[in-house]
Amino acid sequence: MSDEKVGLDYKVKRFLEGAALPPLEAHLYWNGAFPSSHFPAPLPHEWPLDGSSADFLHLDQLAYLPDDILNKCDRMSMAHSLEVRPAFLDHRIVEFAATLPHDLKIRGRNLKYILRELMRDKLPAAVTTRAKQGFDIPTHHWFRTTLRPMLHDHVHERPSRPPGSTGPPSANCSTNTTHAAPATVTRSGDSSCSPSG
């Protein structure tokens, strides 16, 4: 299993599954926002006009940004009492970017080409040349390191009732009470258990 955020096996599987879909469904499937069947509003019947990158970028502005990326940004910033203003969403920048030719946006596998070129002498190369990455939490790393013991305990936890039993689960105060049935927990971490009836 890969230690990368997104392993090669997952990328290949995702690519092959999406490649069998029509362009619109493939785009929605690959960016992971939602399948076309769950699109928040009906698409214009003439979309996509020609399947160009401009059409897909416009679609992302209608759906992926407000319903996924910006939604998460808004929730997390409010949760921490922060006021966030995504600078690149200033309407003047968006309108200007819409007029740029495709090869100034994407050149080969180089995304955000014009932005990287403008910043080449202003930012370290480590910033201007690094690959795109999302803002997901490092769950895969946690489960392999700090959370591994807890995950192991949960996966290998013994059931509180014998297989095939139809009665209520019995309380077990002599073993680990971390995963026991709901109980009164004091500040010291001790549980108050009562025998099953």
Task: Describe the overall structure.
The chain is mainly α and 197 residues long. It has a domain at 102-143. It is 44% helix and 4% strand. The chain has nine helices and four strands; from the N terminus they run αααααββααααββ. The chain has helices spanning 8-19, 23-31, 53-79, 91-99, 102-105, 113-119, 125-128, 139-144, 148-155, and strands spanning 106-107, 110-111, 184-185, 191-192. The strands form two sheets. Strands 1-2 form a two-stranded antiparallel sheet. β1 (106-107) and β2 (110-111) form a beta hairpin. α1 runs antiparallel to α2 (23-31). The longest helix has 27 residues, at 53-79. It is globular. Residues 170-197 have low confidence and may be disordered.
Chart the SSEs and their pairings.
Elements: H1 8-19, H2 23-31, H3 53-79, H4 91-99, H5 102-105, E1 106-107, E2 110-111, H6 113-119, H7 125-128, H8 139-144, H9 148-155, E3 184-185, E4 191-192
Antiparallel strand pairs: 1-2, 3-4
Helix pairs in contact: 1-2
Uncertain segments: 170-197
Major sheet: 2 strands, antiparallel
Head-to-tail CA distance between termini: 46 Å
Order of adjacent strands in the largest pleated sheet: 1-2
Report Rg.
Answer: 25 Å
Overall average residue pLDDT: 74
Structural class: mainly alpha
How many runs of DSSP E, i.e. beta strands? Answer: 4
List the total number of helices. 9
